[in-house]
Amino acid sequence: MTAERTIRVSLQGHAYDITVRPGLHADAGAKLRALSKAAKAVVITDSNIPAATVSAMVTSLAAAGFAATVATVPAGEEHKSVEHVLKLYDQILPLRIDRHTPIVALGGGVIGDMTGFVAATILRGVPFVQCPTTLLSMVDASVGGKTGVNHTVGKNLIGAFHQPIAVLVDPNVLKTLPQRELRGGLAECIKHDLIRDAEGFANLEKDIGRALAVDIKYLTELVAHNVAIKARVVEADPFERGERAHLNFGHTFGHAIESISKYSYSHGESVALGMVAATRLGVLLDLLSEADERRIRNVITAAGLPIDGLKLDRNQVVDSMAFDKKVAGGKIRFVLLDGIGKAVVRDDVPVALVREAVESLV
Ligand SMILES: NC(=O)c1ccc[n+]([C@@H]2O[C@H](COP(=O)([O-])OP(=O)(O)OC[C@H]3O[C@@H](n4cnc5c(N)ncnc54)[C@H](O)[C@@H]3O)[C@@H](O)[C@H]2O)c1
Ligand SMILES: O=C(O)C(=O)C[C@@H](O)[C@H](O)[C@H](O)COP(=O)(O)O
Ligand SMILES: [Zn+2]
User: Which sites bind Zn(2+) (predicted)?
Assistant: First the structure.
């Protein structure tokens, strides 16, 4: 049996545990009961989450004395919108919840971000629990309290910071996850090691095949490793006033690609391409060696993620980067690598080099 791992996110007034164990969702109700006396709970999920995963959660909540209602949105990034948040309010408000009623996010990052936003805004704020079901949401999206939705102008442009009261990760649910989604999660794992952990990156180069083979023991360790990296960054800078921007490595290019492609590139695929472009920019600025660039391209390829073949209007991609939330004083702030394991932020990158980096994706 794989041991339970607990990673504390120590935020003043908003501390919580991330618990990781195969089979954990059977105990989700009991874990939540230790944090809440509420009589009701609401589960938000999407139309692709296997029925068995949803009913196991409802059963676990009921066994702990929660009368649970399920609210469902259609699956897909294109539904991460204000319109679907309104539909969730329509489903939840008639249930007569109160300010203590916990809302459970059961799904990938789309569900986690939307549920967090609903929880931040309904009745001016109710508690919520992250029960991530994709690798991407286990290693990244469920932690740190960034919640929100997309706008036609760009990714995640509407939202709020709202921390969950617990993150409950059951890696067994990854057995039903499509391979494309598993690969997407590896993009954020690669990102975490690139910005903070050179040794972790070397381990990932060696072991990435175990993730793709859905080795649950390995995936449990991988999730624990990644959430520990993310938790330390979020603790140091919960509202992204400084070093939290490092978690955006690959996202300035990535969000532009995701949005311009109308989400035909998934978040993980867009971040992979974004990391390739940001890596190229690092080489062009003499921060990173070509040998390190080869290692990065190789591990992204080994994860089954794209490094080129971009079929989008390059000017549109560059233009869309102006909507990045890290823009300050009209300047785009790029997260770059100053070697593997170390991130830096630069706001002095010539646009010609940005274009060259985007060209390298074609
Ligand atoms: N808040 C954050 O810090 C943060 C971090 C990273 C990404 N994100 C956001 O997360 C989103 C991407 O999340 P994602 O990659 O999880 O995508 P997703 O939520 O769209 O899930 C991908 C697909 O997998 C399906 N699925 C989920 N779990 C499943 C399971 N166990 N079995 C079978 N199918 C399953 C979903 O229904 C969906 O169709 C983006 O919107 C991104 O902006 C947020
Ligand atoms: O938690 C963070 O901080 C991140 O940047 C994590 C990213 O992986 C994630 O995609 C996040 O939603 C991006 O945030 P945004 O502020 O650039 O919209
Ligand atoms: Zn991301």
Answer: 188, 251, 267
